Amino acid sequence: MGLRAIFLDTSFGMGYARGMSELQDHAVAQVGHRGYTEESLRDVVCRIGDRLRDSLAAVTAAASGEPTRPVDLSKALRVNQALAGKILMAVRKHDPLLATHLMPGPEALRTFLRGARTANIASDVVGAAEEAVGQFDGLLKKDVGGRAELDAIISAWLPEARQRFELSSKQGAFRSMCNIKGVAADLLLHTLITHPSKELAGYYDGCEVQGAVGLRRFRPGVPVQFTSGISGSIGKSDRGPVWECLDGAPLMQGQEAGLLRQFCAPHDTKVEIRSGGARVQYLLVENRLGVSSTVDMFLGCVIRNAVPPQPSEGPSRRRGVGGEIQMPCRTYVLDALTHKDVWAGCSPALAIYDTATRGICDVNDPDNDIYRLHLEETIQYLGEGIERFRNPDVPRYLELLQSAFDRLGWDPADFRGHRVRVRYPVYGSQFVMAFEGPALTPYL
Question: What are phi and psi of 9, to 5 degrees?
Answer without folding.
Answer: -105, -15
